[in-house]
Amino acid sequence: MRGKCLLFLTCCPLYYSLLHHYHLPTNTTKGKKIKRDTKRERDMDLDWVSAFFKNNEWLIVYLKGMVKPAAALAVVLLAVALSYSQKLSLEGDMIYSVLRSFLQLSVIGFVLQFIFNQENAGWIILAYLFMVSVAGYTAGQRAKHVPRGKYVAGVSILAGTSITMFLLIVLNVFPFTPRYIIPVAGMMVGNAMTVTGVTMKQLRDDIKMQLNLVETALALGATPRQATLQQVKRALVISLSPVLDSCKTVGLISLPGAMTGMIMGGASPLEAIQLQIVVMNMMVGAATVSSIMCTYLCWPSFFTKAYQLQTRVFSS
User: CB-based contacts of 223: which residues, under 8 Å, 6+ apart?
Assistant: First the structure.
């Protein structure tokens, strides 16, 4: 037994020296290697997570910013509860409208963020034409009994807003950059859309109500413009009155959106007022040009080349 122990003690140093010389693995080195591999995998996982958050920092900022809008849903839930208690059957429409507005605003927010980071003017024009197309379609839907109503509305909105925008850029009121042009164009297009739709619908309805008077004027030799002059004036007055009323009461009853946004963003109230004055002026100009343009474009649809009324337009 003593001889075996002496032999073991004699061979152990030789065994470990051979392992060290030929780099043979031992249980100790295997354990250290496993620990190193585990630590390397853990570090790789942490690096991947940190890289993901670094590359998608905008997503984290967006999700943090949606906390307050999510809290504001409490008001919508109150409206849904009231609709249910009063048996209005508007709960589905309310939820659908809120979800749709959320999706639309989220998508347009990412699109605007992309456009703002570009230095190509083509993106500005493309976004502007997209807004005009949607506005023309919506205004044409309002005046669905007017032939080629979507085309008339789209061309009218394009003419009114482009002329106004051109003057603002030439006069150096706004620089031609996405951060200024796209929001300003959106406000003008939205306002011109409402005015154009009301003008087209009102003009058609007034001519239909006074069909005999218009036909009598045409029979006496009046041109289509002369025969429908009163109807055109009435349609323009009705459509432009809300825009003018908002100009008269701006700042007295409610603070407009552009001014409110600047004040909440930390700007001086005086700077916000200056911007709001420009916004109100350009909205009046764009709405007036668009509404008058649509009356001229509606006449070919209301009258024949022989200066006779298109009865099929007013029969429905």
Answer: 307
How many CA atoms within 13 Å lie on the side-chain side of 62?
A: 11
Q: What is the pLDDT of residues 169-228, one digit of tens each?
A: 999 988 888 888 898 899 999 999 999 999 999 998 998 898 889 888 888 888 888 888
- Residue 303 tokens, joined: 């009258």
Q: Which residues pair with 303 in a beta bridge?
A: 309
Calculate the CA 148 to chain-centre distance: 26
- Count of CA atoms in the C-beta half-sphere (13 A) of 298: 32
Please tell me whether the overall predicted TM-score, pTM, comes out greater than 0.90 for this model.
no
Which one-letter DSSP state was computed for residue 220? Answer: T
Helix (H, G, I), strand (E, B) or coil at 51: helix
Q: What is the CA radius of gyration of the chain?
A: 35
Cross-strand bridge partners of residue 250: 254
Helix (H, G, I), strand (E, B) or coil at 309: strand
Cβ–Cβ < 8 Å for 184, 168: yes
> Tokens standing for 304?
């024949």
Helix or strand (DSSP H, E) at 108? helix 91-116
* pLDDT tens per residue, range 5-48: 444 434 455 444 544 444 445 555 545 555 555 656 565 555 65
Helix 178-209 to helix 269-302 angle (10° resolution) is 40
Determine the length of the chain: 316
Give whole-number Cα distances, 260 to 96, 178, 263, 266, 271, in Å: 27, 21, 5, 10, 11
Cβ–Cβ under 8 Å, residues 122 and 176? no
145: Cβ contacts below 8 Å, ≥ 6 apart: 201, 204, 313, 316
DSSP 257-291: HHHHHHHHTT--HHHHHHHHHHHHHHHHHHHHHHH
